[in-house]
Design goal:
Rossmann fold; homodimer; 12 strands; transcription cis-regulatory region binding (chains A, B); 3 domains; 348 residues; 434 Repressor (Amino-terminal Domain); alpha/beta; Peripla_BP_I (chains A, B); DNA-binding; 6-stranded parallel sheet; 4-stranded parallel sheet
Chain lengths: 348, 348
DNA sequence: AGAGCTATCTAAACCGGTTTAAACAGTGCA
DNA sequence: TGCACTGTTTAAACCGGTTTAGATAGCTCT
């Protein structure tokens, strides 16, 4: 019989007070005698009562949940090493506040918009994380229209009513280029991500401007799609150039590791014949052979900061400031070294 | 003013009927004249009304959401290629039913139990997916006690009140071993996952019994933790054996790719000196050099089947049958080949 | 003693649905 | 004409909280 969850009425009855009093006690509202509060909390404790999320949700019109929509395009993002750690960081903030994370995986295109609409219409979440920003991202006006609070992961290029949580990729990218230049490379190529993404072009332009600052021009800039398959393709194109690069900087580790495989399959030795650098410091980066020089960010901290910032917005704070995280750092491993022309006579 | 969401009362008023009638019409309950139903649905349509999840949740005591708890131990599971695809499969079923997926990432140990308790106490979900089963998994009695419906991903070893969704790893594992034996290998080693996991031991025992059926014994069986770092460690131990193996079968791709790196770092050529096989067919498997021979499952279909099965339980069906998926398949790539003793004289 | 406070607490409305019991209208039948 | 019956619809209770307006009690002050 008493297998049912106790409700606020049970607690009220047991403590000999009204439902309202219990609610006041629970939420620390003033206007109750301390003795009464103690009595109520004791009763709640004895009954093991925890307020029902559903009741609360209905009466205060909040979901006590945040949403993350991951756009799973066959070509993009399918197994990004970023998300698990990011989500763990988000979770570490949510769990202490009794919030939940609602995850939605959708295809790109129309389905994506539908995904956000559903989240908003069903009032499933109080706010969303906007990841993988695109230029003139259509989701920003969409969320504005839907009235759904959000934070953007990094800064969008257009105007945005939402605070941004920023982890600057550019210093790390610049550091990679400087590292290669110091090693003596002058023929550097780049494999970037889809230019529709803000972070893809941010990395690419950081690379180009760092090269320019060193008085260099890239041998070639390939546009790829962040996947291993794309990395292979781009690498093959670069290696068959009349004047192939002595170093390739990839916009993420997956493309870099695939590129490493492609280079080795083509008979090259890394880093003697070709230096390779990635971005992300994914788990495998350290363990492939040779270890991949890359750029390390802290997606867990990113998740924490994003959750905290989004909660400020959700809680109704106005003018929430952007949150800035320490920028990503260069991690030098064995996949980068001096260019072949310095170590041994060039075969031309 | 009219910026607010319409409620069922608005629809009722517009259609000139009672709230109850609208509810009946919406849910296709009998007892309403067809003309009335049409009138109600038209009114709902004009107002763009969608029933509030919160109201429904409260009155029918359902969350319209399913939960997935991922145990994120530093050592295990951190960036498993399985989950993104699995979640996408789950989502494809949930979205059509208007359900949401609540994701929880917790550390192993006590926090894990707390995670499930929270999900149950907060009544955030109607059921959960139980992944990465362990032997005598404590979560099964826990969920039973909590009264939270579940499905297990693969079959637990103890008794379980929950249906299982099964994707048999063993045929694929056996196929790997047979493939190596056919190539002529007799000195085969294994790097398994933590024996606490049901799927880890399932793969290991399948390997051992297939070897035995071929009249062979493993050179060595290393127990590792599914991480790249662990794969490196185990590989180093195997390679420094007095009689090192000519082939290593890993329980997942991450360990295998790391092992590949370790072997190459040790100066070995794969597959000439050492054959390597993984499990999962993760994205990079195809693109590392040499391409990794591995076993491919279909986590998307797994997710679909799991979601469908869990929904049967949640909807109150009794005696839900287990769902069985096509077993994982061997994918042969370049990382496996004839053992060195056959191709060239052994250096002993 | 009565008015005016303040501190404490309660009753009741409300959030937006579902569901049950009862009301109502119309029909067939004795 | 009255009764039973079917088909249709509604009013009201209910889910479990929060919140507002108002009741009550105790106290001070004149």
């Amino acid at each position: 019989m008493s297998k049912q969850r106790p409700t606020i009425a049970d607690v009220a009855h047991r403590a000999g007070v009204s439902k309202g009093a219990v609610s006041f006690a629970l939420n620390g509202r003033p206007g109750l005698a301390q003795a009464t509060v103690d009595k109520i909390l004791a009763a709640a404790d004895e009954l093991g009562w925890r307020p029902s999320n559903r009741g609360r949700s209905l009466s205060v019109s909040k979901a006590f949940a945040l949403g993350l929509v991951i756009t799973r395009d066959p070509a993009v993002l399918s197994s990004d090493p970023f998300f698990p750690a990011f989500i763990a960081g988000v979770e570490s903030v949510l769990s202490s506040r009794g919030q939940a994370l609602v995850l939605q995986v959708v295809m790109a295109g129309e389905e994506e918009e539908a995904g956000y609409r559903r989240l908003a219409q069903d009032a499933r979440v109080d706010g969303v994380f906007l990841s993988d920003l695109r230029h003139d991202d259509p989701r920003i006006p969409l969320l504005e229209e839907l009235g759904l609070p959000a934070v953007t992961l990094n800064r969008p290029d257009g105007t945005s009513p939402f605070p941004a949580v920023i982890l600057d990729d550019r210093p790390g990218t610049a550091a990679v280029v400087e590292h290669l230049v110091e090693l003596g490379h002058t023929r550097i190529a780049h494999v970037g991500g889809p230019p529709a993404f803000v972070h893809a072009t941010a990395r690419s332009t950081a690379l180009l401007s760092t090269l320019a600052a060193a008085g260099l021009e890239p041998v070639a800039v390939e546009t790829s799609d962040f996947t291993a398959a794309g990395g292979i393709e781009a690498t093959r194109r670069l290696l068959t150039l009349p004047q192939p690069p002595t170093a390739i900087v990839y916009a993420n580790d997956r493309m870099a590791i695939a590129g490493l495989g492609a280079a080795q399959a083509a008979g090259l030795t890394v880093p003697d014949d070709l230096s390779i650098a990635g971005f992300d410091d994914s788990e495998l980066a350290e363990y492939v052979h040779p270890g991949l020089t890359t750029v390390r960010a802290d997606p867990f901290a990113f998740g924490e900061a994003a959750a905290r910032t989004l909660n400020l917005v959700v809680d109704g704070a106005t003018d929430v400031p952007d949150a800035e995280l320490p920028p990503a750092q260069l991690v030098v491993r064995r996949s980068t070294g001096a260019p072949p022309s310095l170590g041994s006579p060039s075969p031309a």
